[in-house]
Amino acid sequence: MSTSTSAPIYIRLASLDDLKALLVLEGKSFSGDRLSRRSFRHAITSSGTALFVAMRGEVELLGYALLHLRQGTRLARLYSLAVSPEARGLGIGKLLIQACEKKAVKKGKMLLRLEVSDVNHNAIALYQKMGYKEFGHYDAYYEDQTDAIRMQKRLRHAGDEQTTRAMPWLAQGTPFTCGPASLQMVLSSMHPDYQATPNDELEIWREATTIFMTSGHGGCHPMGLALAAKKRGLLADVWLSEEGPLFVDSVRNELKKTVITRVHENFVNQCEEEKVPLHYTAMPLAQLIEAFDEGALAIILISTYRMDGKKSPHWVVMSGYDEHCILVHDPDLDDDKKLPDDPPSPLDCQFVPIARDEFEKMSRFGQSRLQATVVLKTQ
C-alpha cells in the first residue's frame, strides 16, 4: 500500500509491526546475503542494535539501516542499508546514515565502520561524500563473490590520527587458546615466514598453560607466553602487577592450587634461565604506547566483563592507538553476539577501539586487580 508522494519522509526506530514490510524491501534490494525475519526481529528487540526505518506517511516503508553497537568498545558498525528502488534519489540513504551516526554518538561510540561491495559505486560515492574513508579490502566477501571495501568515519574528534600496525588477524581455535592465538598474530606480523598453524596454537598452549582454572582447561600464564615467544625467535619482557602464583584464588581444590603454584614457580625459574626480564609492576599506558611506537607489540590480559558480562581472563593484542582509544586485535569471534543467522565476522575483531579509561579498567583482572602484559620485539 502506498501513500501520496507529497507525504513527509521521516526516520524512526523500527517496530515489530514493520517486519512484513522489511522482508519485502529486503527481497527487492538483495539477491543474496539477505536478513531473515528472525534477524530483523532480533535487531528490533536487542539492546546491542538499532534498526532505523525511513517512512513516507504512516505506512510506506522506503528504507532501513541496521546499526551494531559493540559493547565495551567505542566501535559501531553499519551492518546493512537498503532503500526501495522506487525511492532512490530522494536522499533517504543519507538520512538513514545520519540517524545511525547520531545514535552511535549518543551511545558513546567514536568510530563507525561499514562494508560495501566494490561494484556499488553509488553507495561508495555517498559514503565518501559523508566523510567515510577506505581502510581495508576483503576478497569474495559476499555470496555472489564480489569484493568488499571497508570504510570508516570518525564520529568525534575528526582531526585525530590513528597509529596502527599492519597485522594479520587470527581466531582462537578453542575457548582456552586466546593467548596462543594472540601470540601467533604477533609472530605472523614480526616474522612473515612464520606459519600460524592450529597445531602450533595447541603447542603454544601446552608450553604456556596454567593447567587449571575455576573450570575447564587453564589459560596461559604471561611468563609461559613469553617463553613460547622466545622459543620462536622473539624477545620478550613480562610486566606483572604482583608476585606469586596467578589465578590461584580462582580455584578451591587444594590439588589444583598446588599444581598452579608449581607451574608458576617453574615459569619463574625458566625465565631466569632464559634471561626473560620480569618486571613486578603494572606497565604504564604511556610506556606501552612508547614501546609500540618503537616497534614492539604487546599481548595484554583483560577482563571481558565490560564486553560480554563474563568475568573471564582474556588475551588480546594491541594493534594501534589514538588520542582517545587503544586499538586491539581480539582473537575471540564469539564475544559479540550477532544476529541469529549471521555468522561471527572477523571485521568486528580487528583494530577494535576501546576508550583509554575503559581499557585501563578492562586490563585489571580479578579481586587483586591483576595486570599482565607481555611486550614482544624482534631480536
From TrEMBL:
Q: Is Transferase there in the keyword field?
A: yes
Domain N-acetyltransferase: from-to ranges: 9-156
Q: Which InterPro entries match?
A: Acyl_CoA_acyltransferase, Bact_Acetyltransf, DUF3335, GNAT_dom
Q: Which Gene3D superfamilies match?
A: 3.40.630.30, Cysteine proteinases (3.90.70.10)
According to the entry, what is the taxonomic lineage of the organism? Bacteria, Pseudomonadati, Pseudomonadota, Gammaproteobacteria, Oceanospirillales
Matches recorded under PANTHER family: AMINOALKYLPHOSPHONATE N-ACETYLTRANSFERASE-RELATED, AMINOALKYLPHOSPHONATE N-ACETYLTRANSFERASE-RELATED-RELATED
Among CDD domains, the record links this protein to: NAT_SF
Q: Which organism is it from?
A: Marinomonas arctica
**Keyword RNA-binding: yes or no?**
no
Q: Indicate what this protein is called per its UniProt record.
A: Peptidase C39 family protein
Pfam families, A to Z: Acetyltransf_1, DUF3335
Query: Keyword set for this entry?
Result: Acyltransferase, Transferase
One example of the protein's molecular function in GO is: acyltransferase activity, transferring groups other than amino-acyl groups
